[in-house]
Amino acid sequence: MQGRRVVVTGLGVVTPVGIGVEESWQAWCRGESGIRQITRFDVSDFPVKIAGEVVGFDPGLYIEKKEIKKMDLFIQYAMAAGTMAMKDSGLQVNGSNAEQVGVLVGCGLGGLPSIERYHHILEAEGYRKISPFFIPMMIGNMASGYLSMRFGLKGPNSCVSTACATGAHAIGDAFKIIAREDADAMLAGGAEGVITPLGIGAFANMRALSTRNDEPPRASRPFDRDRDGFVMGEGAGVVMLEALDCAKARGARIYAEIVGYGMSSDAYHVTMPDPKGDGASRCMARTLKDAGVRPEEVDYINAHGTSTPYNDKFETIAIKNVFGEHAYKLAVSSTKSMIGHLLGAAGGVEAVATVLSVKHGIITPTINYENPDPECDLDYVPNEARRIPIRLALSNSFGFGGTNASVLFKRYTE
């Protein structure tokens, strides 16, 4: 890795198992599921009736009341997680440093709820009833835009939208922005809120979603032989990344160091991963190379682990390709087993989970792992959290279009 050292000084999450870092972390450590029957709309005619909905979210705790109606749900979640990360970091932004603090928070599908709502209004009542705030409600970069305005962040302001790799790409890109001295600190991560008729219906018609409707908490089961698809979730995960010298100068608490970032493309298929795990393999290998570490130094992988037949099998192959015999000594687990797949927010939330694992020496489990799949034969930390020292932990995120991202976190030492 070249350039300045970069550390994590703040965390924020909104997830189906909790609003806030401590609530979510404790639920993950207990192996709790946030998958439930969908309540947002009538699912009686849908083949999929379950999702990881965020429960009890009050946007008024993070956003001025008059502004809430101008923001799609993904922006509201981003504002909440970003506010948490900002507060957790203790970083004070003022005239002397505002131009050196930026934001890079992405989304996968953006303002789908607003699109559905205003298309219905257009059809029923005509164009005059479309809100003048509709466009900024739905476009993906507004999560970053609103966060920059909320905290006066005048540094780099951008957005990543790379499907299910979004959050990881955002964090990796922000890491490199700081390393090359284009900013001293960055809020980075992903947000998503598309549990809607169109969102659920489209993924259901792709046959991508689990139909274990009678047992919602047991539906997301990565690497298990009986997995039958992913469960859609929602929420946001945002981290504060900061140049080490800046963090130390102000006495900031440091959770972990980010030391590597890799990207690649499968160049294979619109939705299916490369069966040989080629793209994912190159992505992980590039991350290790970027960090200058050997495969055997990595202790834990927070897997993409979607609970789909193809992804889990091919990700397992990719891990073996990169780590060889060490793959069988690695701990590998999937946060998605508890919260479902948060699409564009997944990489952000899972980065938070990975950072906390490094900080506390606790690996959160892959729940619902009951029947081993012969083709998925690694140590998936089944059903119960595990306490082990972690030197290096990798977080994987792979998306439609064959886009791949991995970020590597290290236990912080002077």
Automatic annotation (TrEMBL):
One of its GO terms (biological process) is fatty acid biosynthetic process. It is an enzyme of class 2 (transferase). Residues 3-411 form the Ketosynthase family 3 (KS3) domain. One of its GO terms (cellular component) is cytosol. One of its GO terms (molecular function) is 3-oxoacyl-[acyl-carrier-protein] synthase activity. Pathway: Lipid metabolism; fatty acid biosynthesis. This is 3-oxoacyl-[acyl-carrier-protein] synthase 2. It comes from Tectimicrobiota bacterium. Involved in the type II fatty acid elongation cycle. Catalyzes the elongation of a wide range of acyl-ACP by the addition of two carbons from malonyl-ACP to an acyl acceptor. Can efficiently catalyze the conversion of palmitoleoyl-ACP (cis-hexadec-9-enoyl-ACP) to cis-vaccenoyl-ACP (cis-octadec-11-enoyl-ACP), an essential step in the thermal regulation of fatty acid composition. Its EC number is 2.3.1.179. InterPro entries: 3-oxoacyl-ACP_synth-2 (IPR017568), Beta-ketoacyl_synthase (IPR000794), Ketoacyl_synth_AS (IPR018201), Ketoacyl_synth_C (IPR014031), Ketoacyl_synth_N (IPR014030), PKS_Beta-ketoAc_synthase_dom (IPR020841), Thiolase-like (IPR016039). Coiled coil: none annotated.
